[in-house]
Amino acid sequence: MINAEELSKTYRISEKQPGFAGTLRHLVQRKHREITAVNKISFCIEPGEIVGFLGPNGAGKTTTLKMLTGLIHPTSGKLSVAGHKPWQRKARFLGQITLVMGNRQQLLWDLPALDSLKVNAAVYGIPEKEAQRRINELAEMLELGEELLRPLRKLSLGQRMKTELLAALLHQPAVLFLDEPTLGLDVNAQVRVREFLADYNKRTGATMLLTSHYMGDITTLCPRVLLIHQGELFHDGSLSELTQKLAPCSQVRMELSKIHSIEDFRGYGDIHSLEGHQVQLLIPRAELSERVAALLKRFEVVDLEVSAPPIEELIGGLFRHRDKL
Ligand SMILES: Nc1ncnc2c1ncn2[C@@H]1O[C@H](COP(=O)(O)OP(=O)(O)OP(=O)(O)O)[C@@H](O)[C@H]1O
Q1: Alpha-carbon distances of 84 from 53, 73, 94, 145, 321, rounded to whole Å
Q2: Is the entire prediction scored with pTM above 0.90?
């Protein structure tokens, strides 16, 4: 459904020295600088997949989404979305995609959502009866009722996001680009939007590419993630593979029946902390089962917990230490 090969985007920006002299110099001799926002990224997304698109601020996510939706032209590389070259912005292509941005709204602030929805339906050439059927179906899935009759400005943020989703899906797009769809929503509203997206994907088989700073969105919805940093693709695979790539060790926390000294744990892993009956060790994943079995044999263990460091921490660490990788 989406095929990107060595996709790149370089922006050319003009540079001006500060002050009046700089302005004059800029008028006669313009200087330019190039910023490579996306650098030869390649990936392929199959119909029906939900893929998370991660990266820190300025990584190149929005630039990629803009290329995928045809808002900007790639500088180089090959790109096909639903069988089309997005930048041609053909009506048949636009009828197959939708872009939902958590920080932008397409519905009119002072009008009831239902009025805007009817206008949108007419723009897409959807017959009135069919439009009403689709609105009813989506409203039921999104648990929206009389909210559609109230002016948008009188709705809560969560209700507004749900009406925006309804509007974005009215033309039954095959590919959904979702840029921070749960931005600013409270935890309950986030969960409802996630449940809706999962349900919609199951019912319609729509393909989804989703960016979010909330890891909950990614862990619940996306079996596969693309991680982009400084314009380059760092990871394409599952979240657990990403965790393994970023954290080669597991964290083992044990509560013991007796107090032990640091020396007792030598050879089992790196000691993260030792406090009273509690000890935390970092053990390489490849040797985890063998070492845990040895620990259980050697110590009287009251409680045991094996975990990976939280994914947010790992990704945050990656972004801070990228140059060292
Ligand atoms: N129109 C533009 N002109 C010049 N540079 C741009 C333009 N748009 C983006 N950039 C630069 O390209 C790089 C990638 O920006 P982009 O907006 O794609 O990142 P992002 O991953 O979406 O970040 P965020 O999470 O903050 O939205 C940044 O260095 C940004 O400053």
Answers
A1: 21, 13, 10, 36, 38
A2: no
